[in-house]
Design a protein that fits this description.
single chain, alpha/beta, five-stranded parallel sheet, 39% helix
């Protein structure tokens, strides 16, 4: 009897065809690694990683097109799909197809409304100018925030991407101001993959509305954030949602933040739930980590064209009519011939960071990492920089030095101030297990603070324990990623205090928090969307770990506003900067050719 602990072999063994089994094994493993499909052009490279008996089977001459379990034509309902020299599980080919078809539908429906929307924008020219005042700069640059706002007003589907500090949320606030002015009864939904990210976006939008006319600013105060699952209507014990193509969302605008975290399945279902005539605006950083589950759809869409921020002559003329100062409009190199690509003029990259300068500190370091510029990365190993401190030795004193910073929030008596101080710094790690993993780092910091008599670890919820919620709790109004602090209330009862949506305090008894972690340290994946004044990034010593990529390192570095400390060996830092995540999918190729030959 065949037995194995390898889930991919278990999946492959389900199919009786020995010819199919190695392919089934690879498709299953690829999904586990975040890929949507198996590119057959990579088969020789993948063959070396197969169990021995599969290597032999793969060597046999056979046409996959002849396999009865593989669909090659429209209408065939089979477990696998062979398309464009890529092998998919049928379900994931379906997701990819549905995403492509919905994007094409967005482009077709918005074309009908283009002339009316362009005319309305011209009427709002004065408001547009007031929303985007000239920047205080010696050299006027293209105002990509304004270009993004105009684009989102005209389109039904818009992607706005940019690194930290480029003003994605500020841009959306101004887009909504334009839309609220044009339609006072506008229905707006705010969503993100996590409740914490959604709440943070809503809070940022409310702050960004200050200075707007009262009639418009008041609209922002009514915005209610939601997770994508809650927005779509999560059905327990089901992969379906209440809102779908047959029951679309009842909103005029849907804004989704941290879109790089959305996997293929959720992406397809989100797009289908947005009805015709509803604007969908996706925000995110294309260079950040992709979703934990299969697919990197946001990054794929951002990189589906050879260049971003290219507009045709017709759109360029409209921009010139709307932008008062020519220097803030498109440059000659930003104007090109019209393209039939579905995403042409639908993706805008914000390129100027108001937080980091690209020629120094965190901005320079993060740019070097995401570009894989080994020479620039190596220069930080030998130079001194106030914003970037690297620890490449095995001396663990750096952790205690950084952990000393947590003393500030512990000493602070005012709970609201203590929460703010606690969230000014964070240790970030790549893995959970091992010497540089989450569990041991949290324990080391606890031990250090206990030796200093700053805390006393005498119970799971001890006084001053920093807590991160790890599962949504709608009853308590807590979301996955919310952070709080354990303190005794006026009656001597231990409570976990969190900031509420109005920047006040919310106290929750520990017994109501079923899933949580101590959060002196957290994983880089969990930190996405968060910001801290100071960050310590700790990486494992094994430079060959596949998880150590430039996207992971970039995401960790850019969580810091003022200073990032990085503890890792030089080979690990350089190897991580070199390793680029490339998740296999066919969406870019299919989009560029408008191929939809197999419908599911």
């Amino acid at each position: 009897m065949f037995t194995t602990n390898d889930v991919h072999q278990q999946f492959a063994a389900f199919f009786k065809s020995e010819i199919l089994q190695p392919y089934a094994y690879l498709v299953s493993r690829k999904l586990g690694e975040g890929h949507i499909c198996l590119p057959l052009e990579d088969l020789n490279e993948e063959k070396e990683t197969l169990p021995e008996h599969y290597k032999e089977l793969l060597g046999k001459r056979h046409r996959l097109e002849d396999e009865p379990m593989i669909a090659t034509q429209a209408g065939q309902r089979r477990p696998f799909v062979l398309f464009n020299d890529r092998l998919y599980l049928q379900r994931y080919f379906s997701y990819e197809t549905r995403i492509l078809e919905r994007l094409l539908a967005f482009v077709q429906t918005e074309a009908v409304a283009f002339a009316e929307r362009a005319g309305r924008l011209k009427e709002l020219k004065e408001l547009l100018a007031s929303l985007f005042p000239p920047a205080q700069s010696d050299e006027p640059q293209t105002d990509w925030q304004m270009i993004a706002a105009i684009t989102a007003f005209l389109n039904d589907f818009t992607i706005i991407t940019g690194g930290p500090g480029t003003g994605k949320t500020t841009t959306v606030a101004r887009i909504l101001a334009l839309l609220f002015h044009a339609s006072p009864d506008l229905r707006v939904a705010l969503a993100a993959p996590t409740g914490k990210a959604a709440a943070r976006m809503a809070e940022s939008l409310k702050k960004a509305s200050s200075g707007l006319p009262e009639a418009i600013a008041s609209k922002f105060q009514t915005l209610q954030p939601s997770t994508i699952h809650r927005l779509l209507g999560y059905v327990p014990d089901s992969s379906a949602f209440r809102h779908s193509a047959g029951n679309p969302l009842a909103f005029d605008v849907v804004v989704v933040d941290e879109s790089s975290m959305i996997d293929a399945a959720l992406f397809a279902k989100l797009l289908e739930a947005v009805g015709n005539g509803t604007r969908l605006i996706l925000l995110g950083d294309k260079d950040q980590l992709a979703s934990v589950e299969a697919g990197s759809l946001f990054g794929d869409l951002c990189q589906a064209q050879e260049r971003l921020n290219i507009f045709d002559q017709h759109r360029a003329l409209l921009f010139s009519e709307l932008v008062n100062e020519p220097a803030r409009g498109l440059k000659q190199e930003d104007v090109g011939p019209h393209s039939a690509h579905p995403l042409f003029q639908h993706v805008v990259e914000l390129r100027y960071s108001h937080r980091f300068k690209g020629d120094q500190g965190i901005g320079k370091f993060s740019r070097a990492v995401i570009r894989g510029d080994a020479e620039a990365v190596r220069s930080f190993l030998t130079s001194k920089d106030e914003q970037v401190r690297l620890y490449t030795s095995k001396d663990s004193s750096f952790l205690e030095e950084f952990g000393e910073g947590y003393a500030d929030y512990i000493a602070e008596q005012d709970i609201a101030s203590a929460l703010q101080k606690m969230n000014k710094l964070r240790v970030l790690c790549a893995v959970r297990e091992g010497e540089q993993g989450l569990y041991l780092l949290n324990k080391k910091i606890e031990n250090y603070l206990e030796r200093k008599k700053l805390i006393r670890v005498n119970a799971p919820f001890y006084e001053n324990r920093p807590v991160m919620v790890t599962a949504n709790n709608y009853t308590a109004g807590l979301f996955n990623g919310d952070t709080g602090i354990v303190r005794t209330d006026s009656r001597g009862v231990l409570q976990v205090y969190f900031e509420d949506s109005e920047n006040g305090l919310k106290a929750v008894l520990p017994g109501y928090i079923s899933k949580s972690e101590t959060v002196f340290a957290m994983t880089i994946h969990k930190s996405q969307g968060s910001e801290f004044d100071r960050v310590l990034v700790v990486l494992p010593e094994d430079e060959e770990l596949p998880i150590l990529t430039r996207e992971l390192l970039y995401t960790g570095i850019t969580r810091a506003r003022m200073q990032v400390c990085l503890e890792a060996t030089e080979p690990v830092i350089l190897k991580a900067s070199e390793r680029l995540v490339k998740r296999a999918s066919g969406i870019a190729e299919r989009m560029s050719t408008h191929v939809h030959q197999i419908n599911s």
